[in-house]
Amino acid sequence: MTFINELPESLKSEILKISKQNKDALDVFQQLYDYLKDDNNNNKRRKLTISNENSDSKDYYDIDKIEDSTIIFQLKDLSFQSPIRKKLNLTFSISPITQTPILSISKSNDIKPDIIITELNDSNIVFSTFLPIPEKINQIYFVLFYRRNLNNTFNNEPIVLTMNKDQINKQLIDEKLIKEGEDFKNYIQRQALVSGFKISETFGVKFKNSLYVAAHRGTKEGLLYLLPNHILFGFKKPIQLYNSKDIESFSYSSITRVTFNVTISLKNGEKHEYSMIDQQDFANIDTYIKTRKFQDNSMSEELKAKPMSKGNEFAGALAEAEREAEAEAEAEGQDQDQEEDSDDEEADANFETVVEVDDTSDVTDDENDSGIEEDEEDEEEDEEDEDREIELNSDDD
């Protein structure tokens, strides 16, 4: 009679009443109970119990395939970067178990999906948006961060995929889901909202301070997106997402003429540094930080230069960067001075050469003039001597 205790009081009393009138009735009820229980356990969609970080447990179901009749809309042959790298379909459909919207990723509707997210609500969906791709005007990223999927596959890593605008537009227009000239992003946002979560708008006229820059996280090169309420770095794993509410401060370091570093400090004490950011992006990042009213800790005691001693040769990051910048500027100035001095010396040398040539020319001319005058005097003396000889000879005669 164990099943009797699991029944509501009203039903329990009715069964006991019938059993008193017919002793075999209780056995029939027991068989009926066992049959219904076994039938439920043998259902094709196996019931699973998965631990939930926010509660003791929750019931989920495996879904073997996506029935065409349950599909709300589907985007085909999308290039996924996370959690797996391949071309797959992104599908919004109705769960055959809960009759609520679910999101799935699969190669085909006839096979078991790679990922199924059954909880499309604010408690599970952390953040979702469209993001621009550098130098690819016709393509955009779609990102979706969530806490858990069905069976916790792929460690619940975020969904990142690339959408070709022309391809998506053509597909949705052909399926008469949008009209010619309509933005497909608006349609997807509406469907997501109806399903229970929001795809945020992060770029556009309303969000002039949103930007993205190339940066490094250790040895990994990626894109740092500075968004209205989040900061995202991707898209090589691990993809990192910060909520603005969790950020304590920003600080700059390793500043040179070409690049600089940015460190994001979180309220829980974590620090994440992004390096090799182009100096041309400094003004935009600084404007973003000031507009969002984040604290700038670049001049904190930790980053300032400390007194030098035998036991303490540590210098703050900013002080070191300033010294490097000053040294580079001084070296550049010295190089320029040396070039100017070299030019002056060369000019002086040319001038002295000209002067020497002119002086030599003057001396030579004076010597020539002096020699001519001496020759003329000698000729006059010779003529006088000849005249004297003629006179003497005349007297002798």
Automatic annotation (TrEMBL):
It comes from the Eukaryota. InterPro entries: PH-like_dom_sf, RTT106/SPT16-like_middle_dom, RTT106/SSRP1_HistChap/FACT, Rtt106_N, Rtt106_N_sf, Rtt106_PH. CDD domains: RTT106_N. The keyword Kinase does not apply. SMART domains: Rtt106. Gene3D superfamilies: 2.30.29.120, Pleckstrin-homology domain (PH domain)/Phosphotyrosine-binding domain (PTB) (2.30.29.30), RTT106-like (6.10.10.70). It holds the Pfam family PH_18. Residues 327-397 have a biased composition (Acidic residues). The keyword Transcription applies. Keywords: Chaperone, Chromosome, DNA-binding, Nucleus, Transcription, Transcription regulation. GO terms for cellular component: chromosome; nucleus. Residues 210-299 form the Histone chaperone RTT106/FACT complex subunit SPT16-like middle domain. It is found in: Chromosome; Nucleus. Residues 300-397 are annotated as: Disordered. One of its GO terms (molecular function) is DNA binding. SUPFAM superfamilies: PH domain-like (SSF50729). Belongs to the RTT106 family. This is Histone chaperone RTT106. It comes from Wickerhamomyces mucosus.
